[in-house]
Design brief:
Layout (H helix, E strand, L loop, with lengths): L1 E7 L4 E7 L13 H9 L16 H4 L5 H17 L8 E6 L9 E7 L3 H19 L8 H15 L20 E6 L1
Parallel strand pairs: 3-5
Antiparallel strand pairs: 1-2, 2-4, 3-4
Helix pairs in contact: 3-4, 3-5, 4-5
């Protein structure tokens, strides 16, 4: 999986073009280890809300979903961990779409909210590395706790240069936000 394009807009959304070569699995049914390992690494990931046609919980949806949809939820979770205690609670959401009658097979469009462009970009690259490491079974090469700590340091340092998000701001204590997504094909 490769994030081939990243576009930030002024409304607090980052739009990603995600490419999966036809030689690789598009869905988690062909790579069932991926959601299982992610749920162990990120226990709260399974509790995220997910709006899908079947009405499944994300835990259930993740067992038979597109890998970029799994990536979207991972990206929301990474940002959630980085934001905790730095930004005021505010829901951020994501959406995964594809239309292979217009785009080439294997191209997905993922849109995710963000508070801080610098942190969002670093979170995108971390989530991409994690997904690819799960796929190649090299996940032990990534120290996720250390990476999240680095992102939190980056978020704290960059607060001086990036204005607080609309309707939010900086906070001192731990907070949690809702993360929701929509999937459409």
């Amino acid at each position: 999986m490769r994030v081939s394009e990243i576009t930030f807009d002024e409304s607090g959304k980052v739009r990603l073009t995600v490419e999966i070569p036809e030689t690789e699995a598009f869905v988690t049914t062909h790579a069932p280890h991926m959601p299982r390992i992610l749920f162990k690494m990120f226990p709260y990931l399974a509790a995220q809300r997910c709006f899908n046609d079947q009405g499944n919980s994300f835990r259930r949806e993740a067992m038979a979903t597109e890998i970029p949809h799994l990536f979207e939820h991972l990206l929301l979770e990474v940002q959630k961990q980085v934001r905790r205690g730095i930004y005021a609670p505010a829901a951020i959401s994501g959406e995964t779409e594809w239309n292979w009658s217009i785009d080439p097979r294997g191209r997905f469009h993922v849109t995710v909210g963000y508070d801080n462009e610098i942190v969002a970009l670093a979170s995108i690259r971390l989530a991409e590395r994690i997904i690819n490491s799960l796929d190649s079974k090299d996940i032990t090469l990534i120290d996720v706790d250390r990476e999240v700590r680095r992102l939190r340091e980056l978020a704290k340092a960059s607060r001086r240069f990036i204005p607080p998000p609309r309707g939010g701001g900086e906070v001192d204590g731990d907070t949690e936000a809702d993360y929701v997504d929509t999937v459409s094909a």
